[in-house]
Amino acid sequence: MPVDIRLMRYVVAIAEEGSFGRAAARLHIAQPPLSRQVGELERELGVRLFERRPTRLTAAGEAFVESARKVIADVDRAVARTKAVAGGAVGVVRVGYVVSAAYEVLPRLQAAARKQAPGIRLDVTETDSAALAQGLRDGRYDLVFSRSITDFHRLSVTREPLVAVISRTHPLAGRESVSVRELRGSRLLLSEHHLPRYREAVLTAVQGILDEVVNTRIAGWRYSDELLDSRTITLVPRTLGDHPPSTAVTVRLEEEPPAADLQAVWTTDLSPPAGRIVELVRTIFD
After folding, report:
1. d(Cα 198, Cα 211) in Å, to the nearest integer?
2. Residue 96 β-bridge partners
3. Are 118 and 280 in contact (CB under 8 A)?
4. CATH code at 44?
5. If you write DSSP's letter for every residue of 64-84 in order, what string do you get?
6. Residues of the chain with pLDDT under 50
7. Which helix (H) or strand (E) holds 272?
8. Residue spans of beta strands (DSSP E) within the chain
9. d(CA 199, CA 130)
10. Lower CB density within 10 Å: C or N end of the chain?
């Protein structure tokens, strides 16, 4: 027969207090209704759970209390988890990011989430901005970090200059910094996966200096490891330039032209856990 969880709590309280009166006070109910309901439970079960005067558990009562404690603990955990999920404290948040977010921004968010939202797991994926924008539209991502998505809700998280990444065989490879005009004679390598806003920032930085642009279909910026030669350069945000491929070096541009801001981007329809992570992003970067 099914037993109300409330009655299980009553029986456990009586067993722990050793008295119907003290159990009633603990449960904030009157003693007569407590005694009556436990008596009805005993009649339905067909066993005595307690000896009276003095109050003590029978063998059947000890078995009941042992099982009841486990049931109560399971129910309490289920209730707590349900409330935690509804409140955004537990769940999975799908985060997409461009490679330049991997070195500073994403680790900061992950560290903060582990500390302030330990019940939320961040499922992270690196890809290019075009794929991130489409993933937001398709509902594959809850939050992304990108430099050029113009739709959705956005928050700038970093603002930094562009730097030049060049081959170790480039004539300027031994310099710590150069003027943009000194890049004349080089050609610019630019991925077709960059969205218009990012491409505009890069092309504006070298406007009137570089006439030749080499477009590549390879996503991200790791194409530079394969395609950089003694004439070709790429312009990347400083964070990314701090980690050049093995065949290249980074040279600071004296004019420090601005890169497109790295932004956190999300949609309106957020799950409670995703909403909590977005608020965490606001706290960290706003």
Report:
1. 18
2. 125, 144
3. no
4. 1.10.10.10
5. HHHHHHHHHHHHHHHHHHHHH
6. none
7. helix 272-285
8. 50-51, 56-57, 91-97, 120-126, 143-146, 153-158, 162-167, 177-178, 187-191, 213-216, 232-237, 248-253, 262-266
9. 12
10. N
**Domain region containing 246:** 162-253
- pLDDT for position 101: 94
Distance separating alpha carbons of residues 270 and 276, to the nearest angstrom? 9
Q: Report the first-to-last Cα separation within the chain, whole angstroms.
A: 57
Last residue of a domain, one of 86, 118, 149: 86
Here the tokens at position 213 are: 């642009």
230-261: per-residue pLDDT in tens? 888 889 999 989 988 888 899 999 999 999 89
Q: Provide the domain count of the chain.
A: 3
The tokens of 119 are what? 């019940």
User: For residues 145 and 239, is the Cβ–Cβ distance under 8 A?
Assistant: no
Match 């350069």 to its residue by tokens.
233
State residue 143's pLDDT score.
Answer: 97
Report how far residue 141's alpha carbon sits from residue 272's, in angstroms, rounded to the nearest whole number.
14
**CA separation (Å) from 256 to 31, 134, 152, 165, 202?**
79, 31, 29, 14, 12
What does R_g of the chain's alpha carbons equal in angstroms? 32
Assess contact for 202 and 183: CB atoms under 8 A. Answer: no
pLDDT at position 7, please?
93
d(CA 259, CA 242): 14
Closest listed residue to residue 142, CA positions, set 13, 39, 270 = 270
The first and second tokens of residue 56, run together, are 């003590």
Q: In one letter, which amino acid is 147? A: R
